[in-house]
Design brief:
- The structure is a homodimer.
- By secondary structure, chain A is mainly alpha-helical.
- Chain A contains six helices and two strands, in the order ααααββαα.
- In chain A, helix 1 packs across helix 5 (100-120), helix 2 (38-49) packs across helix 5 and helix 3 (55-62) crosses helix 4.
- The longest helix of chain A is centred in the last third of the chain and has 21 residues, at 100-120.
- The first copy, chain A, is elongated and about 60 Å long.
- At the A-B interface, helix 1, helix 5 and helix 6 of A face helix 1, helix 5 and helix 6 of B.
- Chain A binds a DNA duplex through residues 54-56, 65-70, 90-94, 154-155, 157-159.
DNA sequence: TATTGTTATACTCTATAACTATA
DNA sequence: TATAGTTATAGAGTATAACAATA
C-alpha cells in the first residue's frame, strides 16, 4: 500500500485537534507511573493556588460534576495527597488542602510537565516556542477558555492503555 | 469567590491540549446538524483520496479497530454516502467508494471546516495563522503524527451533548 | 490454515438522580 | 426549604474476542 506522499498542507484547526489529542494522551502516559490522571493533576494544581476550597467550588472551577469530583478527591485523599478539613462555619462542607506529600507530588508533576513540554516541542527552538505559546494564548483568550481548565477533563479517564 | 487575576503564562503543551480539545469539540458540534461525527468525516475524506479501499485497509489507515469501523461504514452506507462494491478478485472484501451524495456531503463538510477554522482563529490574522500552521506542522511531523489521522477518533463518539 | 468482515459479549466510564446531614 | 457531599443506578460507548465466509 502506497503511503501518501509527504504531508499536505493541513488546516491549523485540524492540526490543533490532532496535536492536542496527542499531547493530552502523552501527558496522561507520563502521569501513569505516579498512578495519577490529568484530572488528578488539575485538582492538585488548583489547590496549590487556592487552598481551602470546598468541593463545590472546586467542581465549578474545573467544570467537573460534583459526583465525579468526589471519586477523584477520594483517591487523592487515600493516597495522602489531599486532606479534607472540617469547616467550623459550615459543617456541610470540607476545606481541601494539599498535604506535604501532595506538594511533593505536585513538584514531581511539574518536572514531568517540563519533560513533556520538552519532548512535544523538540522541533522548535526557544523563540519559536514562545511564538507558539503567544499565538495559542491569544486563541485561548478569544475563545473564552479558562486558564488551567482542560475541557477534556470530563473524558480523561483513569487508565488509557497506549493503544496496541 | 475571586477570579484568578488575568491569565498567567501557560505552557505550550497545556495550551495545545486545551485548545485541541476545544477545537475537536466545536467541530463535532458543527457536524451534528449533518448527523455526522468526526470519524465519519475522516472516512469520507480518506475515501476521496483513496477510492476503492477495503475496510481492512481503511481501518489501518485511520487506526480504528475493524469492529468499530463496521458500524461507522454501516451508518455511512445507510445514509447513502458510501457504497460497498464487491471485489471480484477477493469476495471476502468490499471496495469502498463515495457516492455522489457522499461527495456533496464532503463538500459541505469542507465548508463547515472552513467556518470552523475561521471561528477558531478569529484572533489571528492571515500571516499569524500561517505562522501557527507551520509551527504545528513541524511538531506533527516530528512527533510522527500521520496526516489526516486524528488520534482521538477512537473516542469521538456519536453524540456529545454540548454540556450546557 | 489464514484473513475479511461481522456480530456478540463484557467492561469502563459518565451522568442522573436519589439520599443524608446541615444550614 | 435549600445546599454540600455522597452513593447508587442506568445509560452510552469501546474493545475483546468469538463467528462465518472466502482465500
Amino acid at each position: 500500500m502506497k503511503k501518501h506522499e509527504a504531508r499536505r498542507a493541513a488546516s491549523a484547526s485540524f492540526l490543533l485537534a490532532q496535536i492536542g489529542a496527542h499531547a493530552a494522551s502523552r501527558f496522561a502516559e507520563r502521569l501513569q507511573p505516579l498512578g495519577l490522571s490529568p484530572p488528578h493533576a488539575g485538582i492538585l494544581r488548583v489547590l496549590r493556588g487556592s487552598a481551602g476550597l470546598s468541593q463545590q467550588e472546586l467542581a465549578v472551577t474545573l467544570k467537573l460534576h460534583p459526583s465525579r469530583l468526589v471519586a477523584i478527591v477520594d483517591e487523592l485523599e487515600t493516597r495522602g495527597l489531599v486532606s479534607r478539613r472540617e469547616n467550623p462555619n459550615d459543617r456541610r462542607t470540607y476545606a481541601l488542602f494539599l498535604t506535604e506529600t501532595g506538594e511533593a507530588t505536585l513538584a514531581e508533576i511539574g518536572r514531568i510537565a517540563t519533560e513533556h513540554e520538552e519532548a512535544l516541542c523538540a522541533s522548535l527552538n526557544k523563540t519559536e516556542r514562545e511564538q507558539l505559546a503567544q499565538l495559542l494564548q491569544r486563541i485561548a483568550e478569544e475563545q473564552g477558555l479558562t486558564a488551567g481548565v482542560h475541557p477534556g477533563f470530563s473524558r480523561m479517564g483513569k487508565k488509557s492503555p497506549p493503544a496496541e
